[in-house]
Amino acid sequence: MKNIAIIMGGYSSEYKISLISGNVVYQFLDKTKYNGFRVHIFKEKWVYVDDQDNEFPIDKNDFSATVNGTKITFDCVFNAIHGTPGEDGLMQAYFELIGLPQSSCDYYQAALTFNKRDMLSVLKPYGIKTATSYYLNKGDIFNTAEIVKTVGLPCFVKPNKSGSSFGISKVKTEAELPIAIEVAYKEDNEIIIESFLDGTEVSVGVINYQGEIIVLPITEIVSENDFFDYEAKYEGKSQEITPARISEEMTQKVSEAAKRAYEVLKMKGFSRSEFIFVNGEPHMLEMNTIPGLTTESLIPQQAKAAGISLTDLFTNAIELAIK
Question: Which of 41, 46, 37 is nearest to 70 (CA)?
Fold first, then answer.
């Protein structure tokens, strides 16, 4: 039996969702192959939490825990932290340094994809289309007329590095821009302002399954809100339709783009990319490397549509990491 540490929590606004994802992994882990250990990673403490909610500190020298005098070490880490430090490369680099296999992509890929601006810049030469964008760093003096001239209205103001739609605003008038920029700066010191893409939004999961890179059935997102925001994602304010109601040609185009992005970036583990179709062409918004794994989340929905159970999905991720 292998010991698997499931890391969850994190230092960002997304920690609550991460705890749910981590507990789903714990629940569906194949108990015939693995002993699962829930490890909470917070700024103030790294602890192994047992089924009675007792906490045992993690020794950061080798990522071990001592329980009643017995030292527990791990064969592999299942990474279920959304946001920092699990999705931006910090944990990946730490595990690489101490020689512990983990289920997500490598540290450089994590840092790159977590930075929307840099990731889209890297993918552009490979023919992957994106929205028109304008970038700001905290402290930059900005001219709202110039921004509107570049990206048009309505537009989206987003923190460059954050997830779960925290800090995002849809801006309809030039006067709303400074307020939206302030909101985004609460989450990050870099901002990306993007033209509004009016079209069908889809979410595409790409995973390495048993050694082969596969595109999962595509999900169409129909949000009741102005866009696929936090409420739409987690509070049922959206319809998620898998497989998406798009043509064969559109399916092929977006699958190719998502798979190309995965391969170009030398990804491992899970990835879920968001696209919007404009005039039949998929435009990429972002890529998540630690997508939600709650039972309502998109990757589990897509895996189910592909006939892959959660247990198989998690076993596959662990086996590939250990290899």
Answer: 37
Q: Is the peptide bond before 154 cis (omega within 30 degrees of 0)?
A: yes
Token representation of residue 295 = 């039972």
φ, ψ dihedrals at 165, nearest 5°: 65, 20
Three-state DSSP string of the chain: CEEEEEEEECCCCCHHHHHHHHHHHHHHCCCCCEEEEEEEECCCCEEEECCCCCEEEEECCCCEEEECCEEECCCEEEECCCCCCCCCCHHHHHHHHHCCCECCCCHHHHHHHHCHHHHHHHHHHHCCEECCEEEEECCCCCCHHHHHHHHCCCEEEEECCCCCCCCCEEECCHHHHHHHHHHHHCCCCEEEEEECCCCCEEEEEEEEECCEEEECCCEEEEECCCCCCHHHHHCCCEEEECCCCCCHHHHHHHHHHHHHHHHHCCCCCEEEEEEEEECCEEEEEEEECCCCCCCCCHHHHHHHHCCCCHHHHHHHHHHHHHC
Quickly tell me which residue has 């304010």 as its tokens: 237
Query: Angle 116-123/107-114 helices, nearest 10 degrees?
Result: 100
Phi, psi dihedrals of residue 168, rounded to the nearest 5°:
-95, 140
User: What's the pLDDT tens digit per position in 126-175?
Assistant: 999 999 999 999 999 999 999 999 999 999 999 988 655 688 999 999 99
Distance between CA atoms of 191 and 135, rounded to whole angstroms?
6
Residue percentage of the chain with pLDDT more than 90: 89
State which amino acid sits at residue 206: V
What predicted TM-score, i.e. pTM, was given to this entire model? 0.90
